[in-house]
Amino acid sequence: MGVVVQKYGGTSVADPEKIRAVAERVVSTRKAGSDVVVVVSAMGATTDDLLDLAHQVAAQPSPREMDMLLTAGERISIALLCMALIDLGYEAVSFTGSQAGIVTDTIHGKARILEVKGSRIRAALAEGKIVAVAGFQGVSTSSDITTLGRGGSDTSAVAVAASLEADVCEIYTDVDGVYTADPRSVPSARKLDAITYEEMLELSASGAKVLQVRSVEYARNHGVPIHVRSSFTQAPGTWVVEEAELMEQAIISGVAHDASEAKMTIKAVPDHPGVAARIFTALAGEAINVDMIVQNVSSHGHTDVSFTLPRGDLPTAQPVIESPCAELGAEGFDTEHDIAKVSLVGAGMKTHPGVAAQMFTALARAGVNIEMISTSTIRVSCVIKETDLDRALVAVHDSFRLGEAAPS
Amino acid sequence: MGVVVQKYGGTSVADPEKIRAVAERVVSTRKAGSDVVVVVSAMGATTDDLLDLAHQVAAQPSPREMDMLLTAGERISIALLCMALIDLGYEAVSFTGSQAGIVTDTIHGKARILEVKGSRIRAALAEGKIVAVAGFQGVSTSSDITTLGRGGSDTSAVAVAASLEADVCEIYTDVDGVYTADPRSVPSARKLDAITYEEMLELSASGAKVLQVRSVEYARNHGVPIHVRSSFTQAPGTWVVEEAELMEQAIISGVAHDASEAKMTIKAVPDHPGVAARIFTALAGEAINVDMIVQNVSSHGHTDVSFTLPRGDLPTAQPVIESPCAELGAEGFDTEHDIAKVSLVGAGMKTHPGVAAQMFTALARAGVNIEMISTSTIRVSCVIKETDLDRALVAVHDSFRLGEAAPS
């Protein structure tokens, strides 16, 4: 009997009624002839409520204790889901991350999965049981409870699926799949039937919220097919698979956007070796996650260096930048809050030249000024003014006719 | 350095402010020169809230999953307590029942502790840390999470104290010790400085709420001194110790009462061997916890058998009783809901005759009719009408001058 791993997020198990609905969905998969392992997140706002409590008892809660605290959330949802499954007449058993053998490193708050032992999961499946596993959590190599970071339940599900060599890892969410663009910004956006791991990685890293980046990496590295689908309908969603498995490869898969970053520009830095190293070493020392970096053409021995970073990191970054600015003899720095990044992603770019040019043309015709550009083999990203964002998304989406079904 | 184990109940950790107050109390014990292990219950109404959720997803929640669910409660409180301790500048680490090595049998919902390994507790203390342990929970011999039943955190604390050979197990509560009677019923009730394990066992079993019976048994069996005291004051409370350690042994320690039971009487049963066995085997088969049993003097070959049981068990007990009643040719049975039990407890009874007679006299003078009597070597219990309860308590308490300090 094949194994299906299903992952339900916090909104899918937000209250007892929704938990009963999830239980019925699990049972229908079971009736269709598969063993089922269900990975569940904490109910609705549980994690936020627990975070609030933590900040009421301590100014800087201990990361180890924070993980001990937050993992109560999934414990509650796996227990309730199993009660509901048993109430429907099925044998079911819940396992915490630790009981499921999800072993991680020791970095509290954003641990990485090292191994999924899964012996108790396999034994329970062999006894004919449905298994519920707590998402988002594991046990470290030093026997402490860890969490995988926000959205970590996606990674838990993929890792469990890899360990069990499951037929599929189904990620249930409140949208019905991966779209060519966010439908709230681009009304003509179309649901994709399938997408490659690489494209999904670029979309997730460029701001698409549907899957955690790390879960896609893990799925690619272990060859786990992911099926992103809605918990409210039975319609098929979007498959995330190897490029070789796609029947038809579109040139462009979609447009993602990210309006959560800010831009800093260090002005008139002397253009000699070691300058970039000095600046970005200082930022890395404060664990600031720099995204795009662009160095403009040097004029008269001086150059401007621009980079983007999460807006929340600005208060930390500004004082960190001051000292290398002074040392290097730069003119100073500018900060721009209201930027947005538009990214066009498609595996076909590798073999179709002119994609970037077409994107820039579409933006120009829409009157959108490009402030920064960065590219990978299957992605072109442009930083623009946040006020231009919706116009830019529609222009790029229309230019590549992403709203129309791929030719068959 | 000696070890002090402190246990705080749900009301002591009901909100972030109270958790911070507990942390300060723990720190003051630490500053006074002891290693401290803190055993904590779930915050305030958490357990009841989780029970509500369970009954919303399933008519008869699975006991294994119920334990998985409820143990989230103490996980939350130990993590928050450690955050507060660390915020005060102390190293602290929390352990679940499983991490603390509290091994139980496999009876979900009322597991018994088999062993406390405690190796992680000892290692953390050796590193100079304060340790918080989740009360009420353990891990079974088959690696499932178990709970010890309501009030089980007292037993967790005593068991941890026994394992660590602690100097004392301090049980913090919202009263300042063990009283000669419930002060809400008997205003002249006096706090006891000390009491023996045996007396405390009888008081707890007779309705005194201050300590769970099993925790007192465990403390007696392992020689753990218990100190019951208030979490709101620094005043000493009541020590529960071996009889040999008491400086001065009062004849009577206190009066307990229990108004949670009902009484059933099976009328005119033929008085021959096997009758009692037939009736009480039937009740035991339904797990009904019968307390007192009294068989009246036989008249003309027939006898009345009366017994008390929890009121909540009446609906189950009545149909169970009908069939043996018919088989034995009894006349039928009566049920009385509004009874109460008054118990006088004192180790001195063993050597002072006349205590029971003095109690009956006090009740008679107060106009209280006795319906049933049962005794042990250090206890006399009388079942009376519930409406007579407060009058009876005051009469017995006054008769033995329990409100006056023991002569020195």
Could you characterize what this model shows?
The structure is a homodimer of 408-residue chains. The first copy, chain A, has 408 residues and is of the alpha/beta class. Chain A has a domain at 3-174: Acetylglutamate kinase-like (Carbamate kinase). Chain A is 34% helix and 25% strand. Chain A contains 12 helices and 20 strands. The first copy, chain A, has helices spanning 16-31, 46-57, 63-70, 72-87, 119-126, 152-164, 197-205, 213-222, 275-285, 314-328, 355-365, 389-399, and strands at residues 3-8, 35-40, 92-95, 102-104, 113-116, 130-134, 137-140, 145-147, 168-173, 194-196, 226-230, 238-241, 254-258, 261-270, 293-295, 302-310, 332-336, 339-345, 372-376, 379-385. Chain A has an 8-stranded mixed beta sheet with strand order 3-6-2-1-9-11-12-10, sandwiched between helices. Chain A has a 4-stranded mixed beta sheet with strand order 5-4-7-8. The first copy, chain A, has a 4-stranded antiparallel beta sheet with strand order 13-18-20-19, sandwiched between helices. The longest helix of chain A is centred in the N-terminal third of the chain and has 16 residues, at 16-31. The A-B interface holds A 16, 19-20, 23, 50, 53-54, 56-62, 64-66, 68-69, 71-73, 75-76, 78-84, 86-87, 92-94, 96, 99, 120, 143, 145 and B 16, 19-20, 23, 50, 53-54, 56-62, 64-66, 68-69, 71-73, 75-76, 78-84, 86-87, 92-94, 96, 99, 120, 143.
